[in-house]
Amino acid sequence: MEFITRSSEQTTQLGEKIGELLHGGEVIAFTGDLGAGKTTMTRGISLGMGLGDEVTSPTFALLNIYQGDTLRLCHFDMYRIADSSQLESVSFYDCMDENTVIVIEWSENIADELDDDTIYIDIKRIDDDTREININGGDFFEANIN
If you average pLDDT over residues 122-140, what whole number do you get? Predict the structure, then answer.
């Protein structure tokens, strides 16, 4: 599925639609250049999950956790992770449970650790405001995001 957003607000709104469909146990793998909108879309996902909009980039922390009443969001930045052998040290496996949604920025660095049911979201920056967003998340998303 391909979407074009023309503002950060529209990117957030698309993320919110995605977040409303999540129940826990999902892994979302982002790809896209620096400044493409990965954190902006994650903010929307958090809103859709009912966790609020206090999402910040985990660039230096590597992991930010947002906890709700029943769901939590583990937001990883894998930019500094050279390969999957370093995942234990950033608590990646500790976040894998049915009440957690995992969002991964720079997911290409750990591609060999991602399951077949991973939701892939690629964001391309067209200009200062416009983004091309491609989501490969199976039939469930195709039927529910429009």
Answer: 89
